[in-house]
Amino acid sequence: MNSKKDQVDKSLLGKRIKNIRQAAALNMAEFGELILGANKGLVSKWEKGSSIPGYERLKKIAELGGTSVEELLSIESMRGVPPFNFSLEELNVLEKVIIKALEEEHSEAFRKSLISSLEKINIRRVELQDSTN
Fold first, then answer.
1. I want to staple 28 with a disulfide (CB 3.0 to 4.6 A). Which of 5, 40, 84, 92 is the partner?
2. How far apart are CA 8 and CA 12, in angstroms?
């Protein structure tokens, strides 16, 4: 059973997404339509922190919010939050998002942060796999 603490990272991202939607004065269905045709159920999952949007959708969300994917996923603004308490499936999605972000132009500091995040994902993946064996 996941504790509330296990959901913190996803909850912060969800709150950011909800803030962007509300700032745009859109309901979930309208927002989802702008985010590559996502249905309102999926938007609700993002906002609740139970699902993470894929990279292309993150780009659209960031664009709508007048920010960047870099800022939307900013590790710096999550200081003090236990990192990477995700399931294996969620780690895989997050890893794909980070790898896709590394393919784009970013500051050296952000690239180092992304690489550090990938290392933490791999450590967490091993911990999860060890706990299931």
1. 40
2. 6
CA 39, 55, 66, 51 torsion: positive or negative? positive
pLDDT single digits (tens) 14-37: 988 998 888 888 899 999 999 999
- pTM (2 d.p.): 0.56
Q: Which comes out higher in pLDDT, residue 24 or 47? A: 47
pLDDT in tens, 102-131: 888 777 877 787 787 787 777 777 777 777
Q: Print burial letters for 39-52: b (CB count within 10 Å at least 16), e (below 16).
A: eeebbbbbbebebb
Other beta carbons less than 10 A from residue 19's beta carbon: 12
For residue 66, what is the DSSP state? T
Every domain of the chain and the residues it spans:
4-132
Contact 97, 55 (CB under 8 A): yes
Residue entry with tokens 């590790």: 75
Q: For residues 71 and 119, give the distance between their C-alpha atoms in angstroms, rounded to a whole number.
A: 20
Q: What is the largest CA-CA distance in the chain?
A: 47
